[in-house]
Every structure is written in structure tokens, then in C-alpha cells.
Amino acid sequence: MKLIVRQKLGEYIVYDESNSVVGKWKQSYFQGAKMEFLDTNGTVLYTIKKCGERIEIKGKDDIISECRFHYAQDGNGTIIQKSLFRPPMAEKSVTDSLWGKIVIIQNEQRDFTIFLNGMEVGNMTRMMSLRKLLIINSPAISTEQCCVIFILGIYMLHDDDIEIV
Hints:
It is a single chain. This protein is mostly beta strands. It has a single domain, classed as Porin, CATH 2.40.160. It has one helix at about 145-155, and strands spanning about 1-10, 10-15, 20-30, 35-40, 45-50, 55-60, 65-70, 90-95, 100-105, 110-115, 120-125, 130-135. It has a 12-stranded antiparallel β-barrel with strand order 1-2-3-4-5-6-7-8-9-10-11-12. The longest helix has 15 residues, at about 145-155. The radius of gyration is 16 Å and the shape is globular. The N and C termini lie far apart (about 40 Å).
């Protein structure tokens, strides 16, 4: 499965291989900042919200799982920070979900490799462009679940952003 995600103001529109809209991620600021995945009818299927050190994933049937980021560490267990002015980059996210353990690995070029239960099932590329690409090689993951994996990648991508006020 190949999904193309185009970024617009406050939302990410998800297209399939035939360039048909699958759904969209919309940023919501009510009751805390969160992302909501809406299908083509406008029904909210998933809500993802960052709550401190963890990311909460809530489905339409109120099933909640969570994701945590992991950072490079030295021998003493201290997180490695490559610059005084830039926060450390998340190298890995781990999610225990209904469809298995999902691990997303981020490299220095900001490309992502996706693992399901220890087996490589896909990748995300061109994450810094307005047109992002997600390829999943496993029939075990649905289109909607791919969209959840994508937004977890977006949270990882922007985890080390610096906000200037």
C-alpha cells in the first residue's frame, strides 16, 4: 500500500495510490492540542494527543493505546544531546497496539522505517517536504492504521523542533 500525504494549513490530506482521498488529519486546539483523523464522510476515526512523555491514541470505539519515544543514550543512560541549542532527536517510537507491537525508527535524514512485531513492514520518506510518502508492505495493517503510523512519525519528526516566542 502506498499513501501520499499532502500538507495544508493545519491538516494533512491522505491519498491512496489512485490519488483518491482516504481521509485527513486535522489539528484541533479545543481541550488541548490534538490531531484527529477523519474519514471521507467527516467521521472522526482516531484521535492522537501528546500528553507529556507519552502519546495517547484513541480509536472511535474508545480503545486507547500509547506510544513513547526513545532517544540515543550514552553508557550511563544519559540522553545524548548533539547541540546545546537543539533538543535530542527521537530515534525510535514504540507502540503496543491491538494489531501488534509497532516500532518506528527515525534516521538522521528524517526517513522512517516501520516494524510490526519485529518485522520490517514499510517506510516513510520525504517527511520534510509538503508531499510525504508512506509505503506499507503488510496486508495486516489497514489504511486507517497506516494513517495512525504516519501521524506518529509526524510527532517524532517535530519532537525536537525549537519554538521561538
